[in-house]
Amino acid sequence: xxxxxxxxxxxxxxxxxxxxxxxxxxxxxxxxxxxxxxxxxxxxxxxxxxxxxxxxxxxxxxxxxxxxxxxxxxxxxxxxxxxxxxxxxxxxxxxxxxxxxxxxxxxxxxxxxxxxxxxxxxxxxxxxxxxxxxxxxxxxxxxxxxxxxxxxxxxxxxxxxxxxxxxxxxxxxxxxxxxxxxxxxxxxxxxxxxxxxxxxxxxxxxxxxxxxxxxxxxxxxxxxxxx
Length: 227
Description:
Elements: E1 5-8, H1 18-31, H2 38-45, H3 50-58, H4 65-80, H5 88-98, E2 102-106, H6 111-120, E3 129-131, H7 144-153, E4 162-166, H8 169-177, E5 181-185, E6 199-201, H9 206-215, H10 217-223
Parallel strand pairs: 1-2, 1-4, 2-3, 4-5, 5-6
């Protein structure tokens, strides 16, 4: 069961920006009359799509869902559109993976905020498919985003051919529900909340991708079989 494609989550996985997102949502929700603490963001909202975050916190029928999401995207873009939130080690790992397998991104963020960051980080040419929040009817933990990515990458891929990198329990649940193998990356949540992943790692870098895609091919086959 060799890995034939790698899919990365965006916020918190490729782009180390969860503290920035938390700060922006705290600002916005205070302005809309329902303050949010950082603890509440990471306990209850992290990993959900933007619309789902707004509906969860302000109410499912809140009339300003689209407006809040637009403001969140604008504020985010102002702060990270230069690509600075993507560490060099992650950039190198994406380039390494792209030289060997197909690479995609599946995110609950909007395409208008993903693409500028990827371009500025020099990674646009290495990503074959991006599935953003607006591309599917259901956000994580629903598997729709990962199943759509499987269609876009095509090439006769099965879900079991794909290795996903995620940083939240909603993301891990989404990848596993799609039948894919999932590596959880520390930095956003405690290990206990990522226990459903096939493996938990401290960071994404080239040695990790070497182990999983080349040296570790037999390891991947034996230990990262979808559960």
